[in-house]
Amino acid sequence: MDSSDRALVDRFLDMLAAEAGASPNTLAAYRNDLEKAAEDLGGELGKADRDSLGTLGAKWAGLAASTVARRSSALRRFYRFLVDDDLRKDDPGSALPKPKLQRPLPRVLGEAQVESIFAAAGDKAASGEPLAQRNLALLELLYGSGLRASEVISLPRGAVRPGQPFLILRGKGSKERLVPISSRAEAAVKAWLESVPASSPWLFPGGKNHISRMRLFQLVREMAADAGIAPERISPHVLRHAFATHLLSGGADLRVLQALLGHADIATTQIYTHVDAARLVQLVNERHPLADRSR
């Protein structure tokens, strides 16, 4: 990417940060996609025309449909920005590939499997070993509160307050939401806090910062292995999915679930209705006005 294109990308990312409140992770993802697209366009990103963009479909043929869709989306937004800011006259974005995506259903653990992970983690934490207590606190917040990996690792030291059954979290897109904190999670965090250095601003410190997402991923898989569950079946996001699906199974309203998860669009939350189809059938049979009428 030449200096002129890099300057355009920097301006675009500054706009996303200032006007859309994009997080550092989102900005890094946009930059990566635009840099890779620039390579595929022979270094001509800002000046690329429809014919140039039309060649990307063949060049991206070996990529996953989701990757192609993400890169195309990043480029479309980039070119709209250039036009809006009078940095170019035309918008060639309509020539970009438009793969058809079928959204995959999330992987979900059964309630019994989650209980077995908690049992194994609880047994270790009962020994008083600090890192085992940390792991149990992480588990309680991931499954008990449905936090994203990036949200739980960056919690400040005083995020969970004694006697307060919720915390105010600044999550994806810098949007604030209320997150429920169970008494179990509060107790687990309290036990772990005794081992957190007083100088640490983070609830889960690691090195000079908080623990990384990769480290959290490893810890979750280790806890699954301790419970006899195949590590490849679990991740922090799978625990978040389990939180959502099990709440829906228990009768939670979809709008409430949307608020708890911090989804901007309820369409994102609705995927859990596909996961828990059996529960939906039961609700229709039990609650529909015609359910009791004989055929």
Structure characteristics:
4 strands; mainly alpha; two-stranded antiparallel sheet; 56% helix; hpI Integrase, Chain A; DNA polymerase, domain 1; 295 residues
Overview of the molecule:
With 295 residues, the protein is mainly alpha-helical. It has two domains: 3-95, DNA polymerase, domain 1, CATH 1.10.150.130; 111-282, Intergrase catalytic core (hpI Integrase, Chain A), CATH 1.10.443.10. It has helices at 3-19, 24-40, 50-54, 56-59, 65-84, 111-125, 130-145, 149-153, 183-193, 213-226, 236-249, 254-261, 266-269, 271-275, 277-287; strands at 166-170, 176-180, 205-206, 209-210. The protein has a two-stranded antiparallel ribbon. The protein has a two-stranded antiparallel ribbon with strand order 3-4. A hairpin with a 5-residue loop joins strand 1 and strand 2. Helix 6 (111-125) packs antiparallel against helix 7, helix 7 runs antiparallel to helix 9 and helix 7 (130-145) packs across helix 11 (236-249). The chain is elongated. The N and C termini lie far apart (69 Å).
What is the domain total for the residues? 2
Predict the CATH topology of the largest domain: hpI Integrase, Chain A
Classify the secondary structure makeup into a structural class: mainly alpha
Number of helices: 15
- Helical content, roughly? 55-70%
Spell the H/E element sequence: HHHHHHHHEEHEEHHHHHH
Evaluate the radius of gyration.
23 Å
